[in-house]
């Protein structure tokens, strides 16, 4: 069963093109190719992101996740004007899903809540702390030139 990583956002991306752009920027930061992203919704005439969910797929079979975006009260987020919650779910590669969550948080987020317990087991991240965890999981050099292990 899939579990979620939740990202509290101050606002939602405007459309699927904006989601693709923020994913491309987030993945590029880790030297990874941009994933494909498309909107899957029941209302065929609707292009609103909250009318369905966003499928995200990378180059490997295990690189798949989906994003659902919902408006909520600040009490469900970390406050500070965050009234949107994006849930990132996968049944496969949590590091891939973590990069998706990082890209969303970097866009307009304050916190990432790791309800899945995946990645390194922390319950909550900022964009900066999640970046460090992902760099370690992806075995990338740290910003100071050392290896993030």
Describe the protein's architecture and organization.
Helix 2 packs antiparallel against helix 3. This protein has a seven-stranded antiparallel beta sheet. The chain has 149 residues and is of the alpha+beta class. The protein starts with a strand and ends in a 12-residue tail after the last helix. It has one domain: TATA-Binding Protein, CATH 3.30.310. The chain has helices at residues 16-29, 94-108, 127-137, and strands at residues 3-9, 36-41, 52-57, 64-71, 84-90, 109-113, 124-125. It contains three helices and seven strands.
Question: What would you say about this model in short?
Answer:
With 149 residues, this protein is α+β, with helices and mostly antiparallel strands. The protein has helices at 16-29, 94-108, 127-137, and strands at residues 3-9, 36-41, 52-57, 64-71, 84-90, 109-113, 124-125.
């Amino acid at each position: 069963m899939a579990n979620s990583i939740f990202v509290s956002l101050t606002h939602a991306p405007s459309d699927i093109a904006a989601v693709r752009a923020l994913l491309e920027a987030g993945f590029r930061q880790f030297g990874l190719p941009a994933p494909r992203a498309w909107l899957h919704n029941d209302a065929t005439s609707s292009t609103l992101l909250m009318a369905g969910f966003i499928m995200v797929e990378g180059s490997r079979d295990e690189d798949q996740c989906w994003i659902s975006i919902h408006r909520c009260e600040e009490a469900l987020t970390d406050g500070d004007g965050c009234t949107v919650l994006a849930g990132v779910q996968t049944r496969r590669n949590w590091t891939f899903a973590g990069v998706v969550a990082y890209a969303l948080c970097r866009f307009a987020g304050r916190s990432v809540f790791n309800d899945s317990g995946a990645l390194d087991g922390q319950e909550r991240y900022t964009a900066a702390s999640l970046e460090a965890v992902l760099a370690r999981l992806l075995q990338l050099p740290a910003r100071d030139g050392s290896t993030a292990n």
